[in-house]
Please model this.
Amino acid sequence: MNTIANVLLKDDEKAIFRLRGLFRQYGYRHYKMSKFEEYDLYVRNKSFLLSDHVITFTDTDGKLMALKPDVTLSIVKNRRESATGIDKVFYNENVYRVSRGGDSFREIMQVGAECIGDIDTYCLCEVLLLAAKSLREISEDFVLDVSHMGILSDVLDLLGLSDTGRAALLSCIGEKNLHGAREICRREVVPEEKQALAELLITTYGEPSRVLPILREKLPADVCAASLDQLEQVLAALPGEIPPGSVRIDFSVIHDMQYYNGLVFKGFVKGIPTGILSGGQYDRLMQRMGKNAGAIGFAVYLDLLEELVTPRAEYDADVILLYTEQEAPAQVAAAVRKLSADGKSVRAQRTLEAGQTCRELWRLQGEEAERLEANA
Model:
């Protein structure tokens, strides 16, 4: 990104600029879509959405429509039934929903990537790598937490829980609530050796090089082997391109099992207390929507960048150019062009305002500009 663009763009705009370049580098094509869909699409998949609040309106033909609160559902819905192979797409689209922690609707720019079709293990590796690189484009200080719904499901199946107990235990794992998990297992009369498996998922987290051997040793190979093999293969593809310590295994990352089935992940950057990126493998969503394909993708929630503390620029502009009513607009414009020719930012105005700072202060008199002082 050139110097002038870097000065003029906001943090979220800079992120979009960089992420689009990243996705194109891996052969993903830009996907454009309508701002609205039929409301029924969101009614049928409410639990997939971050919020069930949707802005609706009646179309001219009487159909109830909605401003889209989500992008993935639209991409899946509009994929052709006859499509074969793999679709690799990225998007930067406005969505309309109540932001997390807010109480009113907002127009939010969301950026993401989706890989849909006959996906294989490499596709999983690539999307996870793109997620990690997307976080790095936002901040060098990031963490990507990775889990696997297959391992979670395999362990829960072994415990023989009731539907209520299963949902409650899954919630405890997501909250890392060891005491609550033990209480549920006690009520459901789960044998100690099986209860230890649930506790393992809560207490074991960290870098893959440390966590994977523990999981290999303690998880029953006859039940969890396929999911564990996949998790290990995917994570093995990352170390060459991602800084050490930035990717962790953490089974508290849990997505809705109605929609997600395999790899799931959540990304964080320093300075924002909640996840800024979320994604995973959503084959079950594809099946629910009648699509015979697999899928994995993620979204970056750019509205959260507002929570980053951006340090105040050292100067309001490299150059402040003062002019009077006697100078013609063409004279001012010519002086600005000349002063900004080497990439400096130039702010032209009549008077120097209180508190303004600049590297160079210039005054225009007729067609000539005179430098007054530096570090004003």
